[in-house]
Amino acid sequence: MSYSGLRRRDVLRTVIGGCGALVGCTAAESGASVPTATGVPTEVEALADQFEDRPVWNVEAHGITGDGRTKVGHAVHELLEAVDRAGGGIVYFPPGRYLFERTPLVGDETFLVGAGRSTVFEGTRYIWERGGALLSNRGYDQPGYTGASNWGVANVRIDTPETNGIMPAHADTVRLENIYGDATYCHHIDIVSSRNVVVDGYWASRGGDSVSDTPIQFDVQQTGITRNGIWDGETRTLVMDDDTPTKACTLRDFEIAPKNGATCGVQLHRGKTESITIADGTILGCQYTAIRADRGEPLADLTIDGVSCIDNARGITLGYSDGGRRGVTIDDVTIRTTERGVAAGAGIYAAGVDEADLSNVTVDGAFASGIIFEEMSDLEMSDVTVTGVTRQAFRFRENVEATLTRARAADCGGAGIYSGEGSRVTYGDVTFDGVGREIVADGEIQKEPAPPAS
User: Fold this and answer.
1) Is it the case that residue 59 has pLDDT exceeding 50?
2) Residue range 326-350: average pLDDT?
3) Is 289 exposed, middle or buried (0-12, 13-18, 19+ CB in 10 A)?
4) How many structural domains are present in the chain?
5) What's 385's domain CATH number?
6) Which of 22, 59, 396, 402 is deepest in the core (most CB within 10 A)?
């Protein structure tokens, strides 16, 4: 066993802070200072507490080099097996480019840390085996959430044109912190049938180079799906396909700005997702939509909070479903695409959701419509502004029960509010400015009486 004489807490502060002190030597030998507690995030303090008594393993001390030429996937996998047998710990990757010719598997209570963008993970594959996970976890082939738990990756760059990136699969309680996403085959991060995964700090400069090019995906492994696999250097093995939902996961503090024009920025893909939070981030330049849920798939308790969707073809698209969805909250969200050659469809589209809440939302730009809902009940909308769309600002297509308050529709070529067949909309304190028609009602629409003059 080779590990540092530094305190584990100080190692974590150093590498998560991006300072890159060499683990396996003293601070004086490395030439890097160890940060004090000042300014250390609460999450890092908690992580330091969790790993206080665990060894720190320096991959260089085990002959693993990041020279960009030597294939080290098998060596990393064998080291992670040794760490797992020892009960877990911190595995440090100094600056360098590490080539994984197989998928190393992380075990329980293990945290992989690098030195920021200068620690690069890349996967190499045969041309007929492109894709699959760059890095995953033990127990990916087990049911439910019985795969590896309490593990994580921090301060690394994913630059891997031949493989996908990090794939928690049937995992429980995972932290992915300060992940930099450059080239990838499909996704930098693909969370598959896992729970309690937190992605905190994620910056994507590219989407995938394959047909499936969404930088980050909340995924479910279903029967018959031939993707989401582990490559051991000779054979691909798929993740257990028992339809385990991905649940209680968070993406926060992120920027997705794919220079290659990805289809989507974030996707809820295949099967049921529950309690997903997407918060405090920006998504730019997607050709279809910034945030997408697959058509017809169930979802529950989706929260989108503090997100800006700028210069995408659409903002948030939760594909058509005639029911089976519950609890969508969209708060403090800006969707803006002013260029007519880019904007398409609706700024926000959702269907089949009971108990949805939109507040503090702005849709601005040359979208066909601002917000479209159908097959919705218990829909509450407040402090919503739609400007510049070519058709309807608010389109309740059919079978929508909604309340709309403190809203504004401006500079819309069609109607401010369109209420379709079977829809029932109660509204008040709505301002119309420069719209073709204020209200078009195919179904029944009720208007709250104006307040008495003072």
Assistant:
1) yes
2) 97
3) buried
4) 1
5) 2.160.20.10
6) 396
**Helices marked H in 174-273:** none
CA pseudo-torsion sign 49, 55, 61, 65:
negative
Query: Helix (H, G, I), strand (E, B), or coil: what is residue 349?
Result: strand
Beta-strand pair 229-231/236-238: antiparallel
- Domain membership flag for residue 24: no
Question: What's the pLDDT tens digit per position in 254-272?
Answer: 999 999 999 999 999 988 9
Q: Tell me how far apart the alpha carbons of residues 395 and 376 are, in angstroms, rounded to a whole number.
A: 12
CA–CA separation, 410 vs 189, rounded Å? 39
Reduced to 3 states (helix: H, G, I; strand: E, B; else coil), residue 61 is helix
CA distance 427 to 399: 16
Location of structure tokens 């609706």: 346
> Which of 382, 380, 400, 411 is CA-nearest to residue 445?
400
Nearest to 201 by CA among 18, 56, 328, 371: 18
Token pair 């492109």 is found at 130
- HSE-up (13 A, CA, CB side) for residue 262: 34
Residue 69: count other Cβ atoms within 10 Å of its Cβ: 8
More confident residue, 450 or 425: 425
User: What number of other Cβ atoms are within 10 A of residue 401's Cβ?
Assistant: 16
Range of the domain at 412: 55-447
With CA atoms as reference, report the closest residue to 270 among 239, 296, 289, 301.
296
Cα–Cα distances in angstroms (integers) from residue 293 to residues 269, 327, 330, 364, in the given order: 6, 14, 14, 22
| Contact by Cβ (8 Å): 416, 385 | no
Query: Given phi > 0 = left and psi -120 to 50 = alpha, else beta, which region is 81?
Result: alpha
Q: How many residues does the chain have?
A: 454
Q: Average pLDDT, stretch 436-447? A: 73
Q: Using CA atoms, how far apart are residues 359 and 196, in angstroms rounded to an integer?
A: 26
Q: Is residue 10 part of a domain?
A: no
- Tokens at residue 269, please? 């893909």
H or E element at residue 84? helix 73-85
